[in-house]
Here is the input.
Amino acid sequence: MTNNTLYWTIWFAASLILSPLLPGIINKVKAFFAGRKGPSVLQLYYDLFKLLRKESIVSTTSGGVIRLAPAIILGTLLTAALFLPYGAKYSPFTFTGDVIFFFYLLGTSRVAMIFGALDTGSSFEGMGASREAHFAALAEAAIFAVIGFLALTTGHSETGMLSDTGFSDIRHLTSTLLCAAAFFLVLLVENCRVPADDPDTHLELTMIHEAMVLDYAGPDLAGIFYAGALKLWLFISFFVMFLIPAGSWEFGLYSAVFGAGVLLTTVAVGCVESCMARYRFLKVPQMLAGALCIALLAVFCLTFFEGGLK
Amino acid sequence: MSDMLFLSVGNGCSVSLAQVPDLPENVFRQALIEAVTTGQKTVFSFFAMPEETGFRLTAVLGDAGKHHLDITGCRVERSFSSMAAEAPAFQLFEREIAEQYPSLEIKGHPWLKPVRKPDKTTFFKMSGDAVHEVAVGPIHAGVIEPGHFRFQCMGEDVYFLEIALGYQHRGIEKMMESPLNSKMIHLIETASGDATVASATAWSHVVEALSDTPAARESCVIRSIAMELERIACHTGDLGALAGDVAFLPTASFCGRIRGEYLNMTAELCGNRFGRGVAVPGGCRTALEKQRAEKILAWIGRIKPELYHALDLLFESPTVLDRFENTGTVSLEDARRIGLVGVAGRACGLACDARFDYPLPEYSSGAPAAEKISVSGDVLSRAKIRYADIAASHAYLERELAAVPAEGLAASAPEITSLKAGHIAVAVTEAWRGPWCCTAVTGNSGELRRVKIVDPSFHNWTGLAFSLRGEQISHFPICNKSFNLSYCGFDL
Here is the structure.
């Protein structure tokens, strides 16, 4: 095993273990803003442990898709996790164009989630599924603008391109920061955070993600929760890798900076959530259109000033 | 002419049942429709009482301009003609009568849908390929009372919302039909669940009027202080909950705590956080010494800036304003027709506040006057009206608490055991939601023959259904919270 593979394996394992920590950190930040003590950062681990000991109950009106959905959701997300270039280098599983494969694996998990929700026949879950499909289609445009930017700036089409983003000059710096901002907006929408969705709401009529998982119980629900945390980890990691030009860094330096980056981004999500109200649904497409525009602006910035700023 | 049609009484007064006009049905009907559709008077109560043969209908209207309540009546045999089509403010009262007295036929009512029998309700249904129906409740996520909401939707847009209540079979009015006893005050205090002092004060005035034992002025002042504390606590809790519904964390968390401070002040005043036991027929059970008045005053001085800070955060946040503005709008025209009252009515531009319109001795030193703000009937208007109410109540409390004399305000509650026979009494207090109206009629031996309670929610649930028309279904929670109506005050 080469050092590269070893480092990658360490961070891959860490991602599986640490991802349930992220929702805990966000909740801690929110509790801090609210002047409360808040639940422990380990709360999701406790919840997962509790749910795994319970039995799964499936609605009698379901046609069976709901039984398959958690496995597909979790399976696709775990597969996607294999492609992130942890440890500053390429993932051992990488292949040309795997960045598209990565995002379509996430898309597949969403399709499974939507079918599982429709399968229950509940009007709330139907509404949640329709909203999810609507917003996801719009988010995809912004995501692909970001990928386009990455491909342009690095000349690669593998997820490893994330390690190659650089701040060699002001042109790269400005355009990378713009593009990262666009991706941050997508991160919020894709992970059902405020202002696009509200993970804490108990109001069925306003839910998106929460509505789709109303009918899961026990280990199935644990799978859904874990998948949600893992998805958040994947997006935050993608965001951080994007921002750190780690291509030639030592493993120790990389680990410290990457870990701190994940923590800081998570706290930033918590701060956004603590300081603003949720948008009305009609505003979410505008937010995603905004993300697309910012990403395109980054591409423009990169290509138009190709000769450098005079 | 109008003197013959209506008997005018002051708020919290009683008259002999024999003095109440007994109009021919068509005159009665015309008089009521005219009084309500011209906007002169608002409907407070309309109910039936069985007599030896047939029924006696009684209507209580409020004349805000003249500061008195108008009572009128009519005897009918087996049926009467509906007024709902001409004056929709009567529609729910008529449906209630139809449900309570099946042998009394109401002719020409557009839809005699059950009021408190959700299992017997047939729901309105839209048809079409893209139409879908969303049913919520009666069991909800969270600790909320039972109520069923049915939305007819196309995509995210609501075309029609139907609200079915009546899951709590409480029978409060029936339980009150007996000789006066000391348990009644407890039934009344919990009638609306959260308007304890306002409802107990209205009931106290009814009993005091029926027994000619007016409460001492000092007792009235203590009741008014408790009522305003109740108002601040409820509005604070609701504004925090509104913030919570749009995921605006700071105000949601602050208000939850600050509401507790006002509840604790109420406990300091009377020993109960929800103001139970303050107002009783005859006066008030708890004295207010100068020292405690000063303590509460200082407490308010400490908490008020924190509350205003939390509310300013809410009203200055662009993301919150974007959610509240132009959401769940009820037009002034609709509000007038369906007879909205209280906070929801004022948010549509109606000038209605029972503390000014129908004076009670509680506010003899001047009721808390809220600042006039521009309103448009949306969620933001309802929130701003509450903020203005909070500010006015603070000014009132500061004035009244500072004015407590050195010897304090004494408690006095002479026991009332018997009521005048054959009388009717009406009292209206402005509870935090709006006017809380209680009408009582005594029988030949002074027993309570009919007690009619009308919680402001009874008028305003229709307003909630209106606010959702053409609105996005995801806005229902904030529309609902901006009204925050009582289920149990409706179910009774």
In short: The CA atoms of residues 107 and 136 of chain A lie 8 Å apart. The mean pLDDT of chain A is 91. The interface with chain B takes residues 30, 33-36, 123-124, 126-127, 130, 194-195, 198, 200-206, 273-283 of chain A (CB under 8 Å).
